[in-house]
Every structure is written in structure tokens, then in C-alpha cells.
Design goal:
alpha+beta, 2 helices, 60% helix
């Protein structure tokens, strides 16, 4: 159980670093993603992007299985 928690923590750190790097490239907002911009506040929730990444990763991981 301890090793699983460590692996999940490392995965979360890795994903956080990737998200920080990708935010610098100003990727386009796909239709269906939620983007709310106010004066001093920006909220971005990539629903469609998450679904597409999930499908892509599922296909890739099933190829290696």
C-alpha cells in the first residue's frame, strides 16, 4: 500500500509539472472546455481535452498490454 501511494504521488507531481509546462504554450481552447476570464481571475476546466487525452491514453496503454 505504501509503494502504491508513493507511485501515485510521483505521478501527480509529474502531471503537475507537465501542466505547468504546457500552460506556457497557450494551447487553443477546444469547444466544450470551460474558460471564464474576469479582471483578476481566470478559471479553465478542460473537459473535452481531458476526455480526448483519456481516450488516447487508453488506446496507447491497450496496445502495450
Amino acid at each position: 500500500m505504501g509503494n502504491l501511494l508513493i507511485e501515485i504521488g510521483l505521478l501527480i507531481i509529474f502531471l503537475g509539472l507537465i501542466l505547468n509546462l504546457l500552460s506556457q504554450f497557450n494551447l487553443p481552447v477546444l469547444p466544450g472546455d470551460i474558460l471564464i476570464q474576469k479582471e483578476n481571475f481566470t478559471f479553465y476546466f478542460p473537459i473535452v481535452t481531458s476526455i480526448l487525452l483519456s481516450i488516447l491514453l487508453t488506446i496507447i496503454l491497450n496496445l502495450f498490454k
